[in-house]
Design brief:
This protein is of the alpha/beta class. The chain contains five helices and five strands; from the N terminus they run ααβααβββαβ. It has a domain of about 80 residues: Ribosomal Protein L15, Chain: K, domain 2.
Length: about 150
């Protein structure tokens, strides 16, 4: 049985390459002769011997987030144009379903945000997921009412 001292102090000696024939790793330093791999500073990254490399076997993810939040943005000026052209009626409460039924938003869109760009002067009742402060002020100034779904109370 060996004592703990001998186990603790036992270290493998570092192989010093390129230190003469007698070392066993002299001359070409264990790299073989000639070729790309014998040169310094060359590494064939992700080469798997002709097998399809892992980075090409896996699907691309890149800048397409997996749980993407499909958010549509609509400006008050654009909303006013839709009201003027009678694509949206003022009688009903305007929400995401209204936009989807009138085919203004794609089916994949799950939320929408109101921004304040443009002139607005219609009295509407609208339900949005998000809204800028100025857009909210403009709607209330025109005599309308806005409810924001995800607003913390």
């Amino acid at each position: 049985m060996t004592s703990l001292n001998t186990l603790k102090n036992h270290k493998t000696k570092k192989i010093r390459v390129g230190r003469g024939i007698g070392s066993g790793k002299g001359k070409t330093s264990g790299r073989g002769v000639k070729g790309q791999k014998s040169r310094s500073g060359v590494a064939i990254k992700s080469f798997e011997g002709g097998q399809m490399p892992l980075y090409r076997r896996l699907p691309k993810r890149g800048f397409n987030p997996i749980n993407k939040n499909n958010l549509a943005i609509i400006n008050l000026g654009d909303l006013q144009k839709l009201i003027d052209t009678k694509k949206i009626s003022l009688d009903v409460k305007i929400n995401i379903e209204t936009f989807k039924k009138s085919k203004l938003f794609r089916k994949s869109i799950s939320k929408f945000k109101l921004l304040s760009n443009g002139n607005f002067n219609s009295k509407i009742d609208i339900e949005a997921d998000y809204s800028s402060k100025i857009a909210k002020e403009k709607i209330e100034k025109a005599g309308g009412k806005i409810t924001i779904k995800n607003q913390p109370k």
